[in-house]
Amino acid sequence: MREAGRIVARVHDALREMIRPGVTTAELDARAEAIIRAHDAIPAFLGYPYTGRNDFPATICASINEELVHGIPSPRRWLEPGDIISIDVGAIYQGWVGDSAWTYPVGQIDEESQRLLAATEGSLWAGIAQARPGHFLVDISRAVENHVTQHGFSVVREYTGHGVGRRMHEEPQVLNFVRPGAGRGPRLRPGLTIALEPMVNAGGWRTRVLSDGWVVVTEDGRRSAHFEHTIAVTEGEPEVLTVL
Ligand code: MG
Ligand code: MG
């Protein structure tokens, strides 16, 4: 999983350098796929969920501005100055999965978008800091939610983080908010690997799915950000796997 995570991190490093006005999301996708395959890995999203009916057609999810997640790359969709773009990418290396998302500014972005990106990334790190043996899963969820609400933004409720390992989506589901009455969740143990991925809206938390069956947008049309790392609970500090 460390190696799968490193490959995903290499993709993010390369795409970060490519992001500028005029680049298309299809160009970003092609670069991501080339890097993953050059490392003898497989794009984890391509063809997901492998049912043969409206499977995801690309290596990355590229979601711009009011798009939250699951944006489909296109040669007709290019970045504009002031956009924010969330790129989510997964790789499978020798049967093990890495999964990481990041939201990038395109040139100069407005002040609210800057705060949205900072608060969402901050909530990811606040959640990671709770991923210690003896804590419960809800401690992660609470830390994420508190960080977001303290900054005046909304946590998306319909999409969540997840366990990850041999498959991209495993138990447990990792909520980014505390669901009243849902209990503490499992106690965290060394060896647990999860993808922690707050999705945060500038406005309200509600979302809807477009008619293509994939792209998720905010219901109120305001912007959304998404930051994700795959991490491992260890005996001590949590280990972030989707880094170089
Ligand atoms: Mg992801
Ligand atoms: Mg994920």
Features:
single chain; 244 residues; alpha+beta; Creatine Amidinohydrolase; five-stranded antiparallel beta sheet; 4 helices; 15 strands; 26% helix; globular; binds magnesium ion
What does this structure look like?
It is a single chain. The protein has 244 residues and is α+β, with helices and mostly antiparallel strands. The chain has one domain (2-240): Creatinase/methionine aminopeptidase superfamily (Creatine Amidinohydrolase), CATH 3.90.230.10. 26% of the residues lie in helices and 25% in strands. The strands form four sheets. A five-stranded antiparallel sheet has the order 8-7-9-14-15. The structure holds magnesium ion (MG) (2 copies). One magnesium ion binds at residues 88, 90, 99, 101, 197, 228.
Short description:
The chain has 244 residues and is α+β, with helices and mostly antiparallel strands. It contains four helices and 15 strands.
Cα-atom radius of gyration: 17 Å
How are the strands of the biggest sheet laid out side by side? 8-7-9-14-15
In terms of per-residue confidence, which ranges show pLDDT below 50 for 5 or more consecutive residues? none
Structural class: alpha+beta
Structurally, the number of domains stands at 1
Q: Beta-sheet strand percentage? A: 25-35%
Could you name the CATH topology? Creatine Amidinohydrolase
The helix tally amounts to 4
Order of helices and strands: HHEEEEEHHEEEEEEEEEE
Q: Please give the CATH class.
A: Alpha Beta
Q: Note the overall shape.
A: globular
CATH architecture: Alpha-Beta Complex
The average pLDDT score comes to 97
- CATH superfamily, by name, is Creatinase/methionine aminopeptidase superfamily
The percent of residues in helical segments reads 25-40%
Q: What hetero molecules are bound to the protein chains?
A: magnesium ion
Question: Biggest sheet: strands, sense, closure?
Answer: 5 strands, antiparallel
Q: End-to-end distance, in Å?
A: 12 Å
